[in-house]
Amino acid sequence: MRKRKPSTTVDHEQESPVEDSEADVRQAGSEGADGLGGPDQQHSMKPFGRMGVMSKMRRMASWLLVVYVCIPFIVKLCPSIQAKLIFLNFVKIPFFVDLKRPSDVGLNHTHNFYLEPEGGLKIGVWHTVPAEMWRDAEDKPGEWFDSTLGSTHPAILYLHGNAGTRAGDHRVQLYKVLSSLGYHVVTFDYRGWGDSDGSPSEVGMTSDALFMYDWLKARRNKGPLYIWGHSLGTGVATNLVRWLCDRGSPPDALILESPFTNIQEEARCHPFSMVYRHLPGFDWFFLDTISANNIRFASDDNVNHISCPVLILHAEDDAVVPFHLGKKLYNMAASSKSLSGHKVQFVPFSSSLAYKHKFIYRSPQLPRILSDFLGRAHPNAQ
C-alpha cells in the first residue's frame, strides 16, 4: 500500500492565538507611548507647564499694579472714600452684640439708653456705675442710674476711637477698670456708629460730644468730671475741651490715650499708608483729600487753647498711632501758654509690656497713675 507524503506546502504561516494577543498588546503599548509623546516628549512638556504658571503670575502682578496705580486716583476723585477709611464706622465690631443689652458683654451694672443731640437724631449711650453700686444697680430702671450721677463719685466721659462700637472689648475692659476704681463711666456711639443715627463727620462727632458733656454736667452736683479720649477720640476730646475752655467752663481734667498731633500727620504714619507714603504726589492724592472732607482733628492747635490739667498715656510699641506723635503733642502742650500753671504729664509704657494701641488698661500701674495725677485715692491703687 502506497504511503501518502505529508504536505510541505503552507499558504501562510500560522501563529497561536496567545502569541497574536501578546503582539497586539505590545503594538498598543507602543502606540500609547507614542500618543503620550514617550519619555522624552513627556519631559519636554514640563517647561511648558512652568511657563503657564509664570504667565499667570505675570498677569496677576499686572492686575495688582493696575489696582495700585488706580487707588490714589479713585480716592482723589471720590473723597468720601477717604472719610470712610478714617472713621471706619461701618466696621461694627464685635459682631452680633445687642447694644441694648450691655450685660451680654459682662456689664451687668450698665444702663443703655438713647438721647437726641439734634431733632430726629438718636445716639446710643451707656452709663456704668462705680463698682460699689453694682449690687444696687441690678434690675434698676433708668431713673435710678440717672440719680446716681449726682453722687460724689468722679465721672468720666469716654470718647472712643474709630471702628467698632461702644461694646468693643478693649473699651469694655477699660470701663470695668475705671468702675472698679470708683468712677461713673458714660460713653456713647457718635452719629453713624453702632446703633446711633446719622453719618459721621468731625463736626458731628464734636457736636455729639459737647451735647453729652452738657447732659452729664447738668447731673453732676458735687463730684469732678473728666474727659477721656482714645485714638481718634483724642481728636474729638481736644476739640471738645477747646470749646469748653473758650466758653469758660473747662473740665476738671483731660486724659488722652494714644493721641496724635493732627489727622494728616497720623495718616502719613498709619500702616495703611505704608505702600504709598513715598509715592510722588502722596500729599496731593491723600492728605489734601482729607482736608477736602473737612477733617482736621488738630490737637496740636487745640492745646494752645486748652486750660485744664492734661494727662497723656502712650505705649512705645503702638503701631497705629506712633509713639513719637504722642510725645510730640506732649511737648507742644508743655510749652503752651494756655496750659501754663496747669499740670501736664506724659506717661510712656515700655514696648516690653506689649500694650500696643489699645491695651493700656491692662497696666497694674494705671490706678496709681490716675490717683497721682487727679489727686484722688483709689482703693486698688498700687
Can I get a quick summary?
The protein has 382 residues and is α/β, with parallel strands linked by helices. The chain has 13 helices and eight strands. Helix content is 43%, strand content 13%.
List keywords for this structure.
382 residues, alpha/beta, 8-stranded mixed β-sheet, 43% helix, globular
Description:
It is a single chain. With 382 residues, the protein is α/β, with parallel strands linked by helices. 43% of the residues lie in helices and 13% in strands. The protein is built from 13 helices and 8 strands. The protein has helices at 17-35, 38-77, 79-87, 134-137, 142-148, 169-180, 202-217, 232-246, 263-269, 282-292, 299-302, 323-334, 366-374, and strands at 110-118, 121-128, 155-159, 184-188, 225-230, 253-257, 310-315, 344-349. An 8-stranded mixed sheet has the order 1-2-4-3-5-6-7-8, with helices on both faces. The longest helix is centred in the N-terminal third of the chain and has 40 residues, at 38-77.
Tertiary shape: globular
Structural class assignment: alpha/beta
Strands of the widest sheet, in order across it, are 1-2-4-3-5-6-7-8
**SSE ordering:** HHHEEHHEHEHEHEHHHEHEH
In total, the number of strands is 8
Mean pLDDT: 87
Kindly provide the radius of gyration, computed on alpha-carbon positions and rounded to a whole number of angstroms.
36 Å
Quaternary status: single chain
Given as residue ranges, the uncertain stretches (5+ residues, pLDDT < 50) are: 1-19, 28-36
> Can you count the helices?
13
Cα separation of the termini? 137 Å
Helix proportion of residues, in percent? 40-55%
Estimate what percentage of residues fall within beta strands.
Answer: 5-15%
The biggest sheet amounts to: 8 strands, mixed
